[in-house]
């Protein structure tokens, strides 16, 4: 049974990712801020992780007793002060993934996806990105800086734009349902090859410009 860790699994895209992996027969280590399981299911192991909290991360590491096939860092925020956006969207994902990889929790050639946003892409933008876009651009920059190291640690890692999705963050008028987005994301991750490592991909498998 393949094993996935989903960080930020309580609702929205993260919860949808829990569901599609369960339906495909995966075991899911699901992290939420309160430690409650996002789904009560024999193949869901809940963990408490506020992605900003280093103590939670240490506890998660010691509780993960089996090597995992996939890490998805989904947690993110949009309407918040700039410092919080930078901490949650840019610093935390890199620290969480880096810690998991350095501690050998991912199987060789396991897949890693960090949820970024098209709002963090600089190409084609004439004005500023806004604080949210800046935080995702900083995430993308740090991802590219770590990319060689993460490959050496055995990961096939990408950053992903999930589309504009009907969640609390995306709003009801967004163009994609959670289901459409997460089915696309899972298919992209299932099809990842070593040559895809280091890319910025969309939910439907296209390369996104930086
Ligand atoms: N929806 C879109 O259109 C869209 C577009 C581009 C990119 N994205 C990205 O996709 C990801 C998921 O977005 P979404 O639309 O599903 O957002 P959402 O509905 O607002 O859900 C955000 C998730 O992140 C978790 N989270 C926030 N801060 C956290 C923290 N400090 N520690 C742990 N978990 C935390 C939330 O947990 P709580 O329930 O505890 O708050 C929740 O599970 C985000 O990274 C977002 O930036 C979304």
Polypeptide structure, described:
The longest helix is centred in the last third of the chain and has 23 residues, at about 130-150. β5 (about 105-115), α4 and β6 form a beta-alpha-beta unit. This protein has a single domain (about 5-200), classed as 3-Layer(aba) Sandwich (Rossmann fold). Strands 3-2-1-4-5-6-7 form a 7-stranded parallel β-sheet, sandwiched between helices. It has helices at about 10-25, 55-65, 80-100, 130-150, 180-190, and strands at about 5, 25-30, 45-50, 70-75, 105-115, 155-160, 200. The chain has 5 helices and 7 strands, in the order βαββαβαβαβαβ. NADP nicotinamide-adenine-dinucleotide phosphate (NAP) binds next to α1. The site of NADP nicotinamide-adenine-dinucleotide phosphate has 27 residues, from α1.
What would you say about this model in short?
The protein is an alpha/beta fold and 210 residues long. Helices cover 38% and strands 20% of the residues.
Topology:
Elements lengths: L2 E5 L4 H12 L3 E6 L11 E5 L5 H10 L4 E6 L8 H21 L3 E10 L14 H23 L2 E7 L16 H13 L9 E3 L8
Helix pairs in contact: 1-5, 3-4
Bound molecules: NADP nicotinamide-adenine-dinucleotide phosphate.
The site of NADP nicotinamide-adenine-dinucleotide phosphate has 27 residues, from helix 1.
């Amino acid at each position: 049974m393949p094993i996935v860790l989903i960080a930020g699994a309580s609702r929205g895209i993260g919860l949808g990712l829990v569901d599609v992996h369960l339906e495909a027969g995966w075991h899911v280590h699901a992290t939420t801020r309160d430690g409650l399981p996002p789904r009560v299911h024999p193949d869901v192991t809940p963990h408490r992780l506020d992605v900003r909290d280093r103590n939670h991360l240490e506890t998660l590491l010691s509780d993960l007793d089996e090597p995992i096939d996939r890490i998805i860092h989904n947690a993110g925020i949009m309407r918040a002060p700039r410092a919080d956006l930078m901490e949650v969207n840019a610093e935390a994902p890199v620290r969480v993934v880096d810690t998991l990889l350095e501690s050998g929790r991912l199987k060789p050639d396991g897949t890693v996806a960090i949820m970024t946003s098209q709002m963090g892409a600089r190409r084609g933008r004439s004005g500023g990105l806004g604080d949210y876009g800046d935080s995702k651009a900083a995430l993308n920059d740090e991802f590219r800086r770590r990319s060689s190291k993460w490959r050496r640690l055995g990961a096939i890692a990408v950053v992903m734009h999930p589309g504009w999705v009907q969640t609390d963050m995306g709003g009801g008028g967004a163009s994609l349902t959670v289901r459409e987005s997460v089915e696309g994301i899972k298919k992209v991750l299932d099809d990842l090859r070593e040559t895809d490592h280091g890319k910025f991909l969309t939910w439907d498998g296209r390369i996104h410009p930086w």
